[in-house]
Amino acid sequence: MECPICKTLIYDTCKTQFCPTCHWELVVISADASQSLKAYFDRKLKAFQDSYSVITAIPSLESKIKRLEKENDDLERQIKDRKKDLKDSQIALSIEQKLHDVEIIIRETEQRISDAGTLAAQWDAYQEKLLELKDAYERAQRNGVQSRYLNEIRIFLTEYGLLP
Ligand SMILES: [Zn+2]
Asked: How confident is the model over 83-141, as pLDDT tens digits?
């Protein structure tokens, strides 16, 4: 016969009182047993079947838990890796930003140097022109004709912002 709980095949039912797998008591109820006795064994059978299905589900639940725990570990590791990646990319981003800032400073400084060079050249030209005018004026002064240079000197000084 087959055990009604765990389906184990039992050959020698005369000698075997309990199922070797689930320990169900292998009783044979005679056909003329009372209805209440049959109902009692039906309830007992149902209770045993329920318990047995819960017990047999435990290993698969355990393996499911193990699998979920492993998945959880994997996900935690992935999160950790992503966090590290994110931190690395934030560091890279801030370094790139700093490099960009430095590039701007370099360009501004180069522009200032270039402007200063232009100013220095202008300043040299200004000094040269001023000396020329001064010489010409002094020569003209000696000849008593300095007034013809006054307008030129005035325009020059105005151009350089030295006269209003
Ligand atoms: Zn059994």
From this structure: 999 999 999 999 999 999 999 999 999 999 999 999 899 888 888 988 998 899 899 88
Q: How far is the CA of 26 from the centre of ligand 1 (A)?
A: 9
What is the 143 CA–ligand 1 centroid distance (Å)?
A: 141
Give the pTM.
0.43
From ligand 1's centre to the CA of 55, what distance in Å? 12
Q: How far is the CA of 19 from the centre of ligand 1 (A)?
A: 5
In a domain, 142, yes or no: yes
Looking from the CA of 47 toward its CB, the CA atoms found within 13 Å total 6
Domains identified in the chain, total number: 1
User: Is there a domain that residue 8 lies in?
Assistant: no
Distances (CA, A) of 57 to 3, 7, 22, 28: 18, 15, 14, 28
Q: Which domain range does residue 126 map to? A: 35-159
